Amino acid sequence: MKTAAKNASIKTITTHYIDGAFVESHGREVMDIISPTNEQVIARAALADEEDTRRAIAAAKRAFATYGRSTTEERAKILRALHEAASARLDDLTAAMVEEYGGVVQFARPIVESGVNAFLAAEQALKEIPWTRRWNKTTVTLEPVGVAGLITAWNANTLFICLKLASAVGAGCTVVIKPSELSSLQTRVVVEALHEAGLPKGLFNVVTGLGSVVGAELVRNPDVAKISFTGSVAVGEGIMRDGAATMKRVTLELGGKSPTILLDDAALDQAIPAALIMAFLNSGQACAAGTRLLVPKSRLDEIKRGIRDAMKTFSVGDPADPKTAVGPMVSQKQYERVQSYIRKGIEEGAEVLVGGEGHPHGLETGYFVKPTVFVNVRNDMTIAQEEIFGPVLCVIAYGSEDEAVQIANDSRYGLHAAVIGTDLQRARRVAAQIRSGRVVINNVTDDPQAPWGGFKYSGVGREYGRYGIEAFLEPKAILES
Ligand code: NAD
Questions:
Q1: Three-class SS of residue 366?
Q2: CA of residue 263 to ligand 1 center, whole Å
Q3: Best mutation site among 29, 97, 101, 155 for ligand 1, i.e. most ligand atoms within 8 A of its Cβ?
Q4: What is the pLDDT of residues 395-408, one digit of tens each?
Q5: How many Å lie between the centroid of ligand 1 and the Cα of residue 157?
Q6: CA 210 – ligand 1 centroid, Å
């Protein structure tokens, strides 16, 4: 029953955030927001049109005239104020991610925290950037690129908004944010929180609408100098192509099909749970999810037994329950996408070790899928090559260390990877041969100053820390004769 939107008690978000104020949407189209946990309409949101987008760009352009000349001390103060404002709403931000997206609370909380902390990390990074360099009669300064359009995906919308905003503001840019239209409730909480920071008008503007409308206007508009995008390869390609007409600078954070290499000296009682956590991160709807597990043929049987046992602790269910490891998929469309890949895997001859098609027993309502592990997977199968963006793990057996590296790199993607083994020197040697933007050794770990981004089809450019800020800067040289 998805018609509950007619119920007057349902909240409708009718405003966007432009020039420091919540303003009524010029766009009249309204979208239902559906809970992925129970399929009920929980809110509605007005979608912005091109006119709303142009107003937001104009506000950002006016603000850039002043903010573009700000000092790093002023930017540091702004980043600190944003951090304090966002921190004050940590519980609400987490609750919105659980309610609207179905993110499991055990993952939603740290991901929101990581967004909130991105402001502090950017403040720290300001100190490491060589803003001015001089030699002989030459002076090189790093200048903000201009108005930036920030476009986010639905799987960690709050994190992406905070992270991109932190980097842009740190660089001295003003921004127009186009959040995922599937994240309108979460966006509302973030914007209410950030509004409390009391920033100069127009410094950040937020217009929620469709990618083909708001996103396309940002990409086409000559007053936008840079697009920082997180989303799919197909849309990323379009942004690069269409942005060329106005010579846009682009940062593209795209998909992944990340390998986890389990070396033959790994301690399986720790290695298997670590590998499964990486595979089912954010219910498998994570660009970095380690969805290809490469295991030594010599230990295949014991690894299969270990996976079967460990999967018992990966419970599916209510995302608000702290014990739940895997929540629902974000939408019916995403549910069907995951089902179609599970079917494809079976058709191509992979064997279902755990999970399979359909809803888990007792969870027929809501977009729940069975966390699924395939074995007997060859790396050239569709399920090993394409990003599924759901809790589906492919176990691929390898003979030698060299073969493991070759399989890991045999992918159009190169975002993230993991190496698990007891001999650290050996794990480092393997990590050094993997062509991806990040490799973690032995477990998921993070460093907010380390770059994030992809080789190959996983994207262009980097985020986080000074790398993230530098993506919003242009070097400028002044030479005296
Ligand atoms: P998507 O590409 O469908 O949408 C992403 C954003 O782009 C949304 O805000 C959407 O409205 C907008 N958009 C759509 N068409 C557009 C257009 N023509 N012009 C401008 N903007 C447009 O992706 P999604 O389904 O929201 O997210 C899932 C994808 O994101 C996956 O492929 C995943 O791997 C990727 N992702 C990457 C990272 C990373 O850091 N590399 C992180 C999270 C998600």
A1: coil
A2: 33
A3: 155
A4: 999 999 999 999 99
A5: 10
A6: 11
| Confidence category of residue 5, pLDDT binned at 50, 70, 90 | very low
Instruction: Give yes or no: 287 in active site.
Output: yes
Q: What is the pLDDT of residues 421-478, one digit of tens each?
A: 999 999 999 999 999 999 999 988 889 999 999 999 999 999 999 999 999 999 999 9
Ligand 1 centre to CA of 153 (Å) is: 4
Among residues 360, 261, 279, the alpha carbon closest in space to that of 316 is found at 360
Which entry of 162, 173, 287, 394 is annotated as an active-site residue? Answer: 287
> Catalytic: 99?
no
CA distance 472 to 468: 7
Catalytically annotated residue among 99, 253, 387, 463: 253
Q: What DSSP character marks residue 326?
A: B
Q: Count CA within 13 A, CB hemisphere, residue 233.
A: 17
Cα 398 to Cα 292, 300, 411, 442, 458: the distances in Å are: 12, 9, 16, 19, 24
